[in-house]
Design brief:
Blueprint (H helix, E strand, L loop, with lengths): L11 H24 L12 H4 L1 H15 L6 E5 L7 E6 L9 E7 L19 E3 L2 E3 L3 H21 L5 E7 L9 H12 L4 E4 L11 E6 L1 E10 L5 E2 H4 L6 H10 L20 H14 L2 H4 L19 H10 L2 E8 L10 E2 L2 E10 L5 H13 L7 E6 L11 E2 L5 H15 L4 E5 L4 H9 L4 E4 L15 E3 H17 L1
Parallel strand pairs: 3-6, 3-7, 7-17, 8-16
Antiparallel strand pairs: 1-2, 2-6, 4-5, 5-18, 8-15, 9-13, 9-14, 10-12, 11-13
Length: about 475
Amino acid sequence: MNAPERLNHPDSKALQSFVDRLWDDEIVPALTHYIAIPAKSPMFDADWQAHGHIDRVVRDAAAWVEGKKLAGLKLEVLRLPGRTPVIFFDVPATRAASDDTVVLYGHLDKQPEFSGWRSDLGPWTPKLENGLLYGRGGADDGYAVYASIAALLALDAQGVSRPRCVGLIETSEESGSIDLPAYIDVLKPRLGNPSLVVCLDSGAGNYDQLWLTTNLRGNVTGTLKVEILTEGVHSGDASGVVPSSFRILRQVLDRLEDSATGRLLPEAFHCEIPGLRIEEARAAAKILGDEVWKRFPWACGADGASTLPTTTDPVEALVNRTWRPTLSITGVDGMPALKDAGNVLRPYTAFKLSLRLPPLVDGNDAAVKLKALLEDNAPYNAKVTFAPDGRMGAWGATGWNAPALAPWLADALDTASREHYGAPVGFIGQGGTIPLMSLLQQGFPAAQMMVCGVLGPKSNAHGPNEFLHVPYGKRLTASVAQVIARV
């Protein structure tokens, strides 16, 4: 190094200034280009290899990283047969006699378009407006690889010593990270024994402070299909004799969910909630208040008033979305569009199910139990099938509950939050799923975890008008740098 090696606390103002310039000059333009590429995850683009969009965003990100000229950087794009590619980079330590390794994680694949975008916006038409970068994938979480490298560059620019850092950027996360375990097996000897994992694929309770994610739900997705006929028939002729496939599907779902309350009925899909997580939910609720539920885009009810949530208690809402199983129907097949719906009793109905699981419930076990629950003893001897997404034996994604926070990391997070946001660090569980976290926790039980992200209020990942809050992203990048310096 040209400058004398500093201690492990950088000048926060200089750090933020460096990060801000890099975001404005290079990261926002790179993300603008990235958003325009429909690099949909394999679950949503079976022909992803032929289309080449995933390969394109991988090449672009790899070229950007290599162009930063970090001292000693080694980068390669790994491609296992039949699997989506992974970027792996390795940056040697600048700290003398350091055995620590930091793993920096992100992904470049995206969710599908969805409908309802503002007329001047679209999933593949990036637009920067009032500090918000709109478009699919920028916040979830194409920015992660760029922010990770920016954090290292900011430390090196000040001569602040840091440990070895390796990057793991995958492209099947939105499909449940179906390809990631194979790459983890290949890379495990090269990952070493990480001291810290930094994952930037999560959310924030607000944009006023740094938020650490303490737990993530698991998820089982799949297609539930009920078949009763081989072809559609006149509803006047058949109804009353042929049972409706939709009614049978409702009966089958009644085994799983209490439709009056939304509670999942099988106890196997529940777990005991740790007391610490309840206390964290209470603390987060004090900060966020009713915004926990008011932040969603509620429609108007029959009387003109807003539609209502399942609960208006902020603590209960936070616990519901992080520690209790819930069912969502995210897609439907077998039903014509309204304009095409004639008087025909349909031969089948199919629903795409998304079952969010508490952090401590095994995803594959839940998928197996869900399949048996839905398929056994079908009403009217109908053909009822549930096909979980993913590969057999690896159905579902298991959630994650963070290990106890080491005192050094707790102090580093709080210091970074106060210096870059002017407020203490917040702790919050998230209802989404990041399969990598469970995998790494099992493989590296001693590692500390910094799971954060830019998906705050109204950022709407996966939905219409998704945006990246650029000022928050800048402060998060600087905070990551400060924490890495403290490892």
